[in-house]
Amino acid sequence: MPFFKRKIQFNDDLGFSSNPVVKNQRALNVDGTPNIERTGLPWFKFDDTYTKLVTMGWSRFFLVILIVYLLVNTLFAVTYNIIGIEHLNGAMGKTPRDQFFDAFFFSAQTISTVGYGHISPQGFMTSIVAAFESMLGLLAFALATGLLYGRFSRPTSKVSFSKNIVISPYQDKMGLMCRLVNLRRNSLIEIEAQMYITFNEIVDGKSKRSYYPLLLERDKISVLSLNWTLVHPINEDSPLFEKTLADIKQAQVEIILILKAFDDTFSQTIHTRTSYQEDDIKMNARFEMMYYHNSEGKIVLDYSKLDSVIVEG
Amino acid sequence: MPFFKRKIQFNDDLGFSSNPVVKNQRALNVDGTPNIERTGLPWFKFDDTYTKLVTMGWSRFFLVILIVYLLVNTLFAVTYNIIGIEHLNGAMGKTPRDQFFDAFFFSAQTISTVGYGHISPQGFMTSIVAAFESMLGLLAFALATGLLYGRFSRPTSKVSFSKNIVISPYQDKMGLMCRLVNLRRNSLIEIEAQMYITFNEIVDGKSKRSYYPLLLERDKISVLSLNWTLVHPINEDSPLFEKTLADIKQAQVEIILILKAFDDTFSQTIHTRTSYQEDDIKMNARFEMMYYHNSEGKIVLDYSKLDSVIVEG
Amino acid sequence: MPFFKRKIQFNDDLGFSSNPVVKNQRALNVDGTPNIERTGLPWFKFDDTYTKLVTMGWSRFFLVILIVYLLVNTLFAVTYNIIGIEHLNGAMGKTPRDQFFDAFFFSAQTISTVGYGHISPQGFMTSIVAAFESMLGLLAFALATGLLYGRFSRPTSKVSFSKNIVISPYQDKMGLMCRLVNLRRNSLIEIEAQMYITFNEIVDGKSKRSYYPLLLERDKISVLSLNWTLVHPINEDSPLFEKTLADIKQAQVEIILILKAFDDTFSQTIHTRTSYQEDDIKMNARFEMMYYHNSEGKIVLDYSKLDSVIVEG
Amino acid sequence: MPFFKRKIQFNDDLGFSSNPVVKNQRALNVDGTPNIERTGLPWFKFDDTYTKLVTMGWSRFFLVILIVYLLVNTLFAVTYNIIGIEHLNGAMGKTPRDQFFDAFFFSAQTISTVGYGHISPQGFMTSIVAAFESMLGLLAFALATGLLYGRFSRPTSKVSFSKNIVISPYQDKMGLMCRLVNLRRNSLIEIEAQMYITFNEIVDGKSKRSYYPLLLERDKISVLSLNWTLVHPINEDSPLFEKTLADIKQAQVEIILILKAFDDTFSQTIHTRTSYQEDDIKMNARFEMMYYHNSEGKIVLDYSKLDSVIVEG
């Protein structure tokens, strides 16, 4: 008899493999990206440059820009020296090292279009290279403008999920619960949630990885102003019915959460995902209330309570 | 017996609390934002910088830019002075104050890429700082470009709601009516409206805040060219049936209006909300017609009549 | 008996008035905008600045930019002269007129961040104004960047409608037909069309403007690669059934066409509208085929035939 | 008897002609664009400039910018020479050729707002032209910024389709299969596919081009993390039932694939199309598995296997 009931062939649908999981390998990373490695194409064929530049962290992004800026100026500095440093009016450097830096700073002043003019190009070759460099500079910073806007306007959400997923009495049964909150002032509306469970099981004598939906008591809300607690009632139809924590651990359970919302402030549809592993499940625990009315009767939402769990009994 | 009929559990759905309201605390502000305070996270964790810069008022936005501009230039002015003011060719200042301002204006000319050149950098350190500053300047204004575009292209609406919501005879019964108009030349199409009512009531001996939908006679129109009057017929199914103004005031009624539309000009879905409190309700009043045909037969929409209410009998 | 059958109350829905039309006043202009005048608000309250700048014609747009550029430079030129032209190093003008232009060109060189430097600021006041002006310049052109991008990326369509709408035999009855074509290389997919008719009629002894839908034989296509001919079959259910051209003219008929499509190239939903008046209706005419196979078997779409109508018998 | 069964009138819907195909002319190009030529309008009426600049290849795009840059500078160089080269302070050229280049480089320094200042404008006419040119320069690069952002943020996909479409045993029948993979790190979700077949057939003694849908075993998946194999089961309802490769070749078959997906990273709906011709069909071949588990249990997707086909028996 299989471990859980009501199996549905969700493998294709969620884009996962049906091979059994070894070494506690998760399907989704905590940030919701699929835990997959990609190979077999030369790096330049992936054509992810824009996506990468837009999705990488800020410090890395500025580092990339700084490095490109230095490299391009070095390249042009070398070019101006090859043409002849004497064509840079006002460059005073006597040693090759000083002459390189004169050309380097002239290049920086050209590509950024500052153009103080205490160093200026003379002669056809140097002038045409400088004219080309200033055009390139404007294009490069046009690109930077696009990238910066792309980074800011990207439909990202800052939905924060509770660290744990708890199992506790719910109405007259047990319920599996986690909760989430919006870290931004953006209004999130028409929020929909889907929950799945995946684990190893033996089917026809073969070890397999199976995927089942976990029905939510409420899978859609209109507006997310406060926090939202997702509840999967563990009734007879649930794959988790009458399972112990030991059962769950042995089957290498992973619980997948898929969220879809409309960001009212920027008119964009947002998708976000996360997953919980066995160690994130707490038995007989419930979440502490996250909001209260202050002395003026106004509702106060306290983000510091998001992960606050009260273990019962 | 509860005060109103046909209660529906809309608390979760609208993201509001079910605690009774004290001191006339509203659920939604007039501009449609939830009347909620947020706490419990260090300020930098909210990550609302972009949202804030895009949604704040224009004068505050320009003030922020001006202050940042002054601060950054001050910072670089200090840096140039530390390296040594003698490395700024053409800087004539004798006193520390004048030397600071020489460096300050050189910094401004560098970061804005004006670069007149009557002051110019000399020596490695000053030149490299200036090269860095000009790059920073271009990035900063790339950012400003993105922010300005973000501010303009944001899916905002200028739907204006009538100041009052009136109750007056409608067909053979009474009706609750408010109206709205588009202040922009943008075409709004496929406009949908939802109306809710919330008030305090005693359920099972406990004071609670309840939420009910108010059915509209017509909740969707194709195009908003003129004004649109929303009508909730107060029939036997309405929570407002046979209620007096005194009943309404005592229950601390708030009427919530949620509007969704498609902005044809910018291809964006727009959501807007507002709410009316008891004091905004006028009994036995009706709205004055907002448009007329001029002498050429053309329809003229007169915005000044939006709030114009005729109190009857 | 009313002039037409199967009347539906579309007045609200299309956002039009139900007053009868005099002097051949149309509901929609040919470009699809509602033929409505707006009044009653101070001009600055309409808050249409961005919409206007983005939707106005190109020549007017550049004129606005040029005028603003000249005005701002004039303002700063006056300011520099008030502070004292002697604080502009290198300004040679002797007459007030020459001094104004020296300051004007210095201003232009500052706001555009060219900063040649043959004229340069001296003293605190002039330097601080110049620093402010260069910041303003960068912001202004950041704004221009946003506006230009907003203009280009706006979800506009270049769907062209046939000049005439024809009535000719269709299958075993008559049909009302017009056709359309995409002037751009953008792929338009999932195109939907709706047709309405509006005219004066006497209802209960009162002259009114009525609106009816005209059912289309096919109101949706997947892809618009060639041309699309819209056909309203004039059967017994049609308001046009057994009507003569004289009947149509007398009732001051206007036929309204609403089109919705998805622009595949820019991932935007596009709406466009047009309307035909009585004079645009041609009886017993049919459209000439718009495409043919060339000698290589490739399909050629000939845009010049869009309005080409063959009048029969 | 017609060649295939269950014909549906998809001609209109897919926007194709029903004329029979000669010389192996395809309906869709491999990149999914319709194989149609357009004529009959003056070139400037197509108004595709923005679309063209945004969709053309990168090298062509930069070439266009370079050429425009050179042309505009040439134009201004000529203008400055006409006004009089003596109004360019610091221009040393003696020959007309040198004077042209002095003006050309001054123009480049002005339009890019570098403004070194070793050449500077003198006199009203030259100064006003330079002021205008610097404004134009900023506008032009504002335009470039918009174009670059438009190019990057365009909803393009890099879905790669297998080179061949194979026919091989599937369950207890035959199946027509091709597969696809996402070359980008963008998350594609809610992916839908439609497959059509088109070929020549004789209907009522006339040769025609017909279009039929090919039902897919699964036409929608939630997430595309790995590869997706599309399967059309060739059962009795399929137009391909009991057809040989010779039958298929004779009828000049083209198989059309339409894909729709939501790009989670940029919140955009993406459409992509492709088509296979008879030569792309392989009989009794099946696709090699594209992913495996590495030694750590992590799934590895190997793009190099996309086209890897194993011919059986």
UniProtKB/TrEMBL annotation, chains A, B, C, D:
Potassium channel domain residues: 71-148
Domain Inward rectifier potassium channel C-terminal: 159-309
GO CC annotation: monoatomic ion channel complex; plasma membrane
One Pfam family recorded for the sequence: IRK_C
Protein name as catalogued: Ion transporter
Coiled-coil regions listed in the entry: none
GO biological process: potassium ion import across plasma membrane; regulation of monoatomic ion transmembrane transport
Membrane topology: Multi-pass membrane protein
Subcellular location: Membrane
Tree of life domain: Bacteria
Keywords, alphabetical: Ion channel, Ion transport, Membrane, Potassium, Potassium transport, Transmembrane, Transmembrane helix, Transport, Voltage-gated channel
Transmembrane segments: 61-83, 124-149
Any GO MF annotation of the entry: inward rectifier potassium channel activity
Native source species: Pedobacter changchengzhani
